[in-house]
């Protein structure tokens, strides 16, 4: 051992900067606080978030709902573009809009950021995006974690995940048990690709040799800007729909991984089939671009991308006009895309039965989309 003051390996030398994490918390604090109502107890910084659930006492039979998700490989586009707040909005959409499908009101959310190196400004941007999404959906952001993983992740790598909890009266739960023969399928427009299918999209773009800074006339902006368009948040419009329609709102389906048919089938009972007419809408330009640029078969596009439909409502026939009016008032473009009838047992490439372990109804996609 040499002389002088003893030296050793420090946490900082191992690649973890505790002070950077503290700076990130300071930068995000104001944005997080804007999501807090009187139900949040203790504010930011505790070991766990506290939420006053006294309001649940007045409910007849409150059911708690929970969901967790991430943003997937859309993160790679955000990193390449150096734009990090929009994927925070995507995270909220992926988690909270899964909760609203049951008719539940989201209560609170937590997030988790794993990174190779804590960049306080980047982490704060991510959380500001999460906070913005929470604010827009009426969800309290009650806590989270930023974990630095040097040696496991490259310095500029990161990933995000989140979990949320909501509540719904047992009598008001939406789903297959409410769907009836003769109900109508109402489609709600997406804001773009949302947060699914980016492994396919990135492969198509890479194979074509396109850069994210390429301006694409049919998109009206650069490819990167289009790919980072945040996922539309349907929480408030769907909850308003549930309040306005009551029992006439049968089910909601969040169109995420697996596409329109697979996700719609999850909220249909066995023995019924939803027939969806492609002719009722035109997919957005970015979907057509991916299909053309990569020569992607339509079946693959439909199993991977949302095709321009981000959420679906199944409603009673007499409630269709009211549903469309309510959604229009909320700024959501919506249209009648099909209807529900008996499943005749016929099967083929256009018919989807069961998805993600759900033994539900079937969905058939018919016709052709109108030309661009």
From TrEMBL:
One of its GO terms (biological process) is 'de novo' IMP biosynthetic process. It is found in: Cytoplasm. It catalyses: 2-formamido-N(1)-(5-O-phospho-beta-D-ribosyl)acetamidine + ATP = 5-amino-1-(5-phospho-beta-D-ribosyl)imidazole + ADP + phosphate + H(+). Gene3D superfamilies: PurM-like C-terminal domain, PurM-like, N-terminal domain. Residues 64-168 form the PurM-like N-terminal domain. One of its GO terms (cellular component) is cytosol. Belongs to the AIR synthase family. This is Phosphoribosylformylglycinamidine cyclo-ligase. It comes from Pseudokineococcus marinus. The lineage of its organism: Bacteria, Bacillati, Actinomycetota, Actinomycetes, Kineosporiales.
């Amino acid at each position: 051992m040499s002389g002088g003051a003893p030296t050793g390996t420090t946490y900082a030398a191992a690649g973890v900067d505790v002070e950077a994490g503290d700076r990130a918390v300071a930068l995000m604090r104001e944005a997080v606080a804007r999501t807090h109502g009187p139900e949040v107890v203790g504010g930011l910084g505790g070991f766990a978030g506290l939420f006053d659930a006294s309001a649940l006492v007045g409910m007849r039979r409150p059911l708690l709902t929970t969901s967790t998700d991430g943003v997937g490989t859309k993160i790679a586009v955000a990193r390449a573009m150096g734009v990090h707040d929009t994927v925070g909005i995507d995270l909220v959409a992926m988690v909270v809009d899964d909760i609203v499908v049951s008719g539940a009101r989201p209560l609170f959310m937590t997030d988790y950021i794993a990174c190779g190196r804590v960049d306080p400004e980047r982490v704060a941007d991510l959380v500001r995006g999460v906070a913005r999404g929470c604010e827009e959906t009426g969800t309290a952001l009650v806590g989270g974690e930023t974990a630095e993983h040097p040696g496991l992740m490259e310095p500029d790598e990161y990933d995000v995940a989140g979990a949320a909890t909501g509540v719904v009266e047992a009598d008001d739960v939406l789903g297959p048990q409410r769907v009836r023969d003769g109900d109508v399928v109402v489609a709600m427009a997406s804001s773009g690709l949302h947060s699914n299918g980016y492994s396919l999209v990135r492969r198509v773009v890479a194979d074509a040799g396109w850069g994210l800074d390429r301006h694409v006339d049919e998109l009206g902006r650069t490819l990167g800007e289009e790919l980072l368009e945040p996922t539309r948040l349907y929480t408030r419009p769907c909850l308003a729909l549930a309040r306005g329609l009551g029992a006439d709102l049968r089910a909601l389906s969040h169109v995420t991984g697996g596409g329109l048919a697979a996700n719609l089938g999850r909220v249909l009972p066995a023995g019924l089939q939803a027939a969806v007419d492609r002719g009722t809408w035109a997919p957005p330009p970015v979907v057509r671009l991916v299909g053309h640029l990569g020569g992607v078969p339509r079946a693959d596009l439909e199993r991977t991308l949302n095709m321009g439909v981000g959420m679906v409502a199944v409603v009673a026939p007499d409630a269709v006009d009211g549903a469309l009016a309510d959604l229009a008032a909320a700024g959501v473009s919506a249209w009648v895309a099909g209807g529900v009838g008996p499943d005749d047992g016929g099967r083929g490439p256009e018919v989807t039965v069961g998805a993600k372990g759900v033994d539900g109804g079937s969905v058939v996609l018919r016709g052709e989309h109108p030309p661009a």
